[in-house]
Amino acid sequence: MALETRFTKALGIKHPIVQAPMAGGPTTPNLVAAVSNAGGLGSLGAAYLPPETLREQVREIRSLTDAPFGVNLFVPTPFEAEPEEIERANGLLGPYREELGIESPEVPSSFEESFDDQFEVVLEERVPVFSFTFGVPSEEQLRRLRDAGAITVGTATTVREGLRLEEDGVDIVVAQGSEAGGHRGTFLGDFRDALIGTIALVPQMVDAISVPVVAAGGIMDGRGLAAVLVLGADAAQMGTAFLTCEESGAHPEFKRAVFGAADDETAVTRAFSGKAARGLKNRFLVEMGEREGELAPFPIQNALTRDVRAAAQRQDRPEFMSLWAGQAARLARRASAAELVRDTAEEAEAALAATRPAVRR
Question: What is the CA radius of gyration of the chain?
């Protein structure tokens, strides 16, 4: 049976499967296009890309697929830190730089790419699906997206956030459970109060809002897709599962760490970026986690640790990399993106077919 939902109808795609937009390198144009060509929705994690690089990658994706795809950006949030706070946070990185044999760089004058400039590229390139996290774009930006024919997708970690997204006119809501790898999308309240598991969050979100809901967090195969469809979701977003695909841009040591991970080897940390994110435990996460009160806020901390993370990748030192992954990482498999999409859809169809008599009773 075909897994047709409001989500697949709205986008004109075959499978209710979204490849999560993992910023920082894993979501290459090849991965995004491969997922879209296979009938899912490929997504480019573009938050850290300079505008012109974003434009180049969008055009590369377009050269590889005629199917819909998405681009994801981080909605900017206010931040501040006194110079002495930044200096203290930067000083904590000294021992790691020394071990990696790199000099301490000058503190950057700008800590993040211009969201407004990135947003203009999304509009100019007429990206079919625009997703975002950490908040909601302005009313004017959402209007311009609608006028350009883009489908908008926002991230919510609580029902309250989902209601806010729907109220603001967002087309689709991603319900991000606490199991999910990567940054928490919480934008109303403290992230500690929004660590709600996927299986608890999704049905509450579905009951509360009328727009399609995409479930995210801990979904690695067809069993997970079938489960969230039964809970009322219109699609599943999978990140960690796609990290280990052939087309993924994740560092080989990152992939190796995912394959070797156990279910209790992730933690939510601010160590790398200053914003709460779930990743595999490593030396940097554990040691810096003990100093969280001294870290700079996002995006300052993210900018400060960039040279350490880059050197760790060059030197194949996973103990200093940000290994964003979810709690179901041990279910990762070696496959191409097309194989993962196909197998996940087939597994979900089989699981739903097998449970149908029980559901009727």
Answer: 20
Measured in whole angstroms, how far is the alpha carbon of residue 28 from the centre of its chain?
Answer: 13
Quick one: CA dihedral 41, 210, 220, 47, positive or negative? Answer: positive
What is the tens place of the pLDDT at every residue in 204-244? 999 999 999 999 999 999 999 999 999 999 999 999 999 99
CB 37 within 8 A of CB 338: yes
**Cβ count within 10 A of residue 7:** 26
Joined together, the tokens standing for residue 195 give 């660590």
Q: Are 352 and 230 in contact (CB under 8 A)?
A: yes
Please report, for residues 18, 193, 199, 296, the alpha-carbon distance to residue 81 in angstroms, rounded to integers and kept in the order given: 36, 24, 37, 7
Checking DSSP bridges between strand 235-238 and strand 17-19, what pairing results, if any?
Answer: parallel
Residue 14: how many other CB atoms lie within 10 Å: 16
Beta bridge partners of 84: none
Residue 265 has which token pair? Answer: 């080897």
Please name the residue that has the structure tokens 């500690």. Answer: 192
Task: Fill in the amino acid letter for 59.
Answer: R
Give yes or no for a contact between 354 and 286, defined as CB atoms under 8 angstroms apart.
no
pTM of the model: 0.95
Helices first, then strands: H and E counts in the chain: 16, 11
**pLDDT tens, position by position, 57-76:** 999 999 999 999 999 999 99
User: For the domain with range 6-76+112-258+329-360, which CATH number is right: 3.40.50.620, 3.30.70.580, 3.40.50.970, 3.20.20.70?
Assistant: 3.20.20.70
Residues 6 or more apart in contact with residue 54 via CB below 8 angstroms: 44, 46, 71, 118, 121, 122
Report whether 154 contacts 174 (CB < 8 A): yes
Using the CB atoms, write b or e for 207-245: b if 16+ within 10 Å: eebebbbbbbbbbbbbebbbbbbebebbbbbbbbbbbbb
At residue 4, φ and ψ (nearest 5 deg) are: -90, 130
Ranges of each domain in the chain: 6-76+112-258+329-360, 82-109+262-324
> What is the mean pLDDT of the segment spanning 308-329?
98
